[in-house]
UniProtKB/TrEMBL annotation:
Top-level taxonomic group: Bacteria
Name of the molecule in the record: PH domain-containing protein
One family name in Pfam for this protein: bPH_6
Record-annotated Low molecular weight protein antigen 6 PH domain positions: 50-86
InterPro entries: CFP-6_PH (IPR019692)
Residues that span the membrane, as ranges: 34-49
Keyword Transmembrane: yes
Keywords: Membrane, Transmembrane, Transmembrane helix
Length: 194
């Protein structure tokens, strides 16, 4: 939710800046600043609004800034929260932009109750746990739900085959996002040169 609020605030501030220049009749500066303000608005939406993770019966869909990953349950080998929630598969590791691990402040605020009953795969050697596994953090909340579902499927024998079909992990590149950001960045640079 914080990311979406931040993206909305950035877009609104950029629009207010453009509106202020239009009301003032400063058309030269308006034409020069429309490109960078549009770029920062689009970047804020791509980085803070769009990323998400969807969990369903077939697997997990991770929507990041430039790519979407469709991961079937049998392809998930491990779920980690070191820097952000990360899914490990036989083909690659997939960071989840929508679920970052806490910083130092967030790690200090974690209480014992936040790291109890997380599921067996959350705990390391000596029952140690990472700050990102705490259910009071974004990464920990998503990891908790993912692990519960993944462990239940494993314990029920649905992941026993160990066979992951080649190509079952689907990756979609967000070409439109890349084109929009690239075009706006090029317009920004061109506007600074002129």
């Amino acid at each position: 939710m914080f990311g979406r609020v931040l993206a909305a605030v950035i877009v609104v501030l950029c629009l207010i800046g453009l509106a202020g220049l239009a009301v003032a009749g400063d058309w030269a500066n308006l034409l020069r600043t429309v490109w960078p303000l549009a770029f920062f608005s689009a970047l804020a939406i791509a980085v803070f609004w769009r990323p998400r993770i969807l969990i369903d019966d077939h697997g997990v869909t991770v929507v990041n800034v430039l790519r979407t990953f469709e991961v079937p349950w049998p392809a998930i080998l491990r779920i980690d929260t070191r820097f952000s929630l990360t899914l490990f598969t036989p083909e690659r590791k997939i960071p989840v932009w929508a679920a970052p691990s806490p910083g130092i402040r967030g790690a200090v605020a974690i209480e014992r109750a936040d790291v109890r009953n997380l599921g067996e795969t959350a705990y390391g050697q000596g029952r140690s746990v990472r700050p990102g596994d705490s259910v009071s953090t974004a990464s920990g909340q998503v990891a908790f739900v993912l692990r519960r579902r993944w462990e239940a499927l494993r314990d029920a024998g649905h992941l026993d085959s160990g066979v992951v079909e080649p190509g079952s992990l689907k990756v979609t590149v967000h070409w439109a996002t890349i084109a929009v950001l690239g075009g706006l960045l090029a317009g920004t640079v061109a506007g600074m040169v002129v």
